[in-house]
Amino acid sequence: MYKKRRRVKKKVIYLGSALIVFIVLIITTIMLIKHFTSNEYKLEKIGYNEKEITNILKLDNKYINYALNHKYDDDLIKLTNQKWFIWDKYKEYKKYIKDLEDRPAEVNYKDVITKVNTKTNYKYYTHTKETNMDLGNAILVNKYYSLPKQYAPDNVVDIPATYSFAGNQIKEEVFNAFKEMADAAKNDGITLIVNSGYRTYEYQKGLYDQYALENGTDFADDYAARPDFSEHQTGLALDIVSYGLNMDNFAGSDTYKWLINNCTKYGFILRYPEGKEEITGYAFEGWHYRYVGKDLAKKIEKSGLTFDEYYAYYLDR
After folding, report:
1. Same domain for 145 and 226?
2. Is 274 a catalytic residue?
3. Which residues constitute the domain of residue 156?
4. pTM as predicted
5. For 60-103, how does the pLDDT look when each residue is reduced to its tens digit (9 = 90+)?
6. Closest CA to 199 of 158, 233, 165
């Protein structure tokens, strides 16, 4: 009886041991399957190192899926880590990097993002498209985004002599905003005068053609907009000065300082800031202000971006 019990006990032990081994094998198999089917393993097989894999897996699923379904891409993480990265432009970023002459050891990825987003990776007046007029006061007009052919805005009014040199016009909404701003400036001892406002297609064409005739097309493209590519033609842009000031001394004036500190309160932005010439396509113009509305002006100011950059990231998507 005792021996029978021992045999039963041994069988139970054997069965228990076998069950444990079986469970361990099952768990090990599951873990191996999980490992070999994991994104970590797949990315490692593609060629990414441990640090790169960690960074990729922090990204959105669409970026992870891209990495999983393409060859090793050493630009992926560096591009996606840029603040103003736009996924829909990824192929353009890659093409621009590929086309760089004598690609440097360290690519300036911030510069790549900026140029592609603003289309400044292309020559002026190439790869152009008509701006989205549905955006109203937020339309972008530059050397890549045009107005509809021979566009003329509605509700254009004459600017009274109190606020402007003779003959200037602007959209009524813009004038009302400028009047509010000019009156506030007056209370601070600053006089704001409109030097140039709305320009018709014909006026802008004549101005551009004169520059081109006297100095050549390249010079004209640097200093004047082509017709239908001019902000002044939108009726939303103003050149603002004070008596006794000109283009040479305006940037150092109290008028300029007041405008920089206050213009967004009234819906205006400095359109062509200093140091941003490659992005805007124009030299610094401390007198050129663009009306976008109070809410948008404050957002653009807070972003620290030019309007061209802001448009690409927030409005043209």
Report:
1. yes
2. no
3. 129-315
4. 0.87
5. 899 999 999 999 998 999 999 999 999 999 999 999 998 886 66
6. 233
Cβ(287)–Cβ(246) under 8 Å?
no
Task: Tell me the C-alpha distance between 226 and 204, whole Å.
Answer: 7
Residues 228 and 273 in one domain: yes
146 Cβ contact list (under 8 Å, min separation 6): 128, 129, 130, 131, 228, 229
122 contacts: CB under 8 Å, gap ≥ 6: 144
User: Tokens 């590929």 sit at which residue?
Assistant: 98
**pLDDT, tens digit, for every residue of 212-227?**
999 999 889 888 899 9
**Domain boundary residue, one of 118, 142, 170:** 118
Strands 268-272 and 129-130: unpaired
Q: CA-CA distance, 64 to 58, in Å (whole number)?
A: 9
From first CA to last CA, the distance across the chain in angstroms is 85
Check 40, 92, 172, 285 and give the catalytic one: 285
Count of domains observed in the chain: 3
Tell me the three state secondary structure of residue 196: strand
* Mean pLDDT, the chain, integer: 91
Same domain? For 141 and 98 the reply is: no
φ/ψ of 51, rounded to 5, equals -65, -40
CA distance 181 to 175: 10
